Amino acid sequence: MSKIFPKPIIELPKADIRIDGLKAYLAQENNNQILFMEFDKDIEISIHKHEAQWGIVLEGEIELIIDGKKEKYRKGDRYFIPKGVEHSAKIYAGYSDITFFNEKDRYQTK
Predict the structure, then answer these.
(1) How far apart are CA 35 and CA 20, in angstroms?
(2) What angle do CA 24, 39, 34 make, to 5 degrees?
(3) The model's pTM
(4) Cα-Cα-Cα-Cα dihedral sign, residues 88, 3, 27, 23
(5) Smaller CB count within 10 Å for the chain: N or C?
């Protein structure tokens, strides 16, 4: 059971993202996706790029390197990754967020 998301969120389809320690719930729109994510382990995401991404931190901490600039984000912080900009992440156990992806098929459901 989620520690942060209410029942209507955890009843959304689970996103098929193969990261150990991640629970992600997917709200699918015609041209974008919104993910509600919780991490119970520290993870690192290697450098990559895609369409624009915006997120708001609900709990915990994430360290992002966006276009070579490293920043830490904590509860209440927002971040934006423009389309095509290389980025990587270190996500700490206990982190949760809401993330908007400006692409309709970034993730599939399980």
Answers:
(1) 16
(2) 30
(3) 0.93
(4) positive
(5) N
